[in-house]
Fold this protein.
Amino acid sequence: MAATDTAPAPPITEARISSPWIVALPNQKGGVGKTTLALALAAVTADANGRALVIDIDPQSSSAEMAGRMADPGFDFSHETDPGTLTRLPELRGYDMVFIDCPGSLEGGQILAAVLAVADFAVIPFTHDPMAVRPTMRTARYVAEHGVPYKVIINNVDPRLGADEIRAAWELLDGGGLARFRCAVRAYRAYSTALANRQSVVQYRGRYAANVREDVKRVHTELLLDLGRLAAGKDMS
């Protein structure tokens, strides 16, 4: 599919036998990196010879706009303004993974409910910021109340702060009883530089690109392991 800002909704095909894994990226707090992480996870899926689709359900259409700037992101994307269209996602057979970029506001509850009605899992990005704690906890409770398994991922960590910053964030989440990833995603200029070069973070080969790929691939691997455990009826822990 051509990468444009107004990419059409993908057609339903029979390229896959089963439904794709549908992964939501919600947080009622904006600015925690949902869009960047959704695009990066889709790029890593494509790099692993999988087919990925990013659904932008945020009225600001940030992920669709960013993907549209890439020469060839390696994955498909679509901006949906009607949450009702999400009900058709389990019928898709052309993708291995579908990542849904959710709105970052308290007003997005109705949209998030529609997302969670079809989601298999939720990855909740979190920045170690006092202003992000309560919205993240509210989001995690909301996701759990809708019966969707989730994990919080520490995102946008300043690499200059070292491991202590990550451990402090983990302790905060553990103290709140929130499920979390055992890895974290550091903040690097490579994300924005890759976009400026019309590339995904997997395609970009500039400074700190290897660090970015390492972080996102760790999240991607742990996510796949969790999805495998869920498919087998096992506990994620």
The first strand starts at residue 21 and ends at 25. The chain has a mean pLDDT of 90. The chain has seven helices and seven strands.
